[in-house]
Amino acid sequence: MDETAERDVAALEAPAPPGLDDGPASAPDAHPGPEERGDEAPEGVVLRVMHFESVLYDLADPSPYVHLQEAESPFRYLAIPVATADAIALHAAHIQVTGRRPTTHELLATALARARVDVIAARIVRYEGGVFFAELDLMTPHGREVLDSRASDALVLALRQSVPAPILCAEEVLRAYYT
Questions:
Q1: Phi, psi of 15 (to 5 degrees)
Q2: 49-177 to CATH, choices 3.10.690.10, 3.50.80.10, 3.40.50.300, 3.40.50.2300
């Protein structure tokens, strides 16, 4: 990894500045965030940069797969199953196509941009029972926020940025996927 990429990954792994968790309490029926679930990435978690490769649909399989490949050796890959609508959204985001009317992801990406919220990274942080768990790392005018997300939504929003946000994957996810 070149020096600039190492600095970028190190910045993404840095903890949020103090005081950002002092916001309003979430609604009682809202899904808990990483801090409330107790699964926030501890210091020293190794994140690998991944490249979006393709969306593939095998007619023998019930769902399409998003293929991500590690940017550096050993060049491991992840095949993440997604719904057909999400596969279409990912492919459109990857080739930078927008519809005549905004899709939900296009609308959210536009809303985030107008609110001056940057997607810092899409991170795949956990793999359990064949399910990938992700989070969006955002920089808002009020500071950094990390939101729990479906992997497909995090990937689409990362790709929908004017400069695509990095896609990162925890080393433990790659190890779990390959065992």
A1: -70, 155
A2: 3.10.690.10
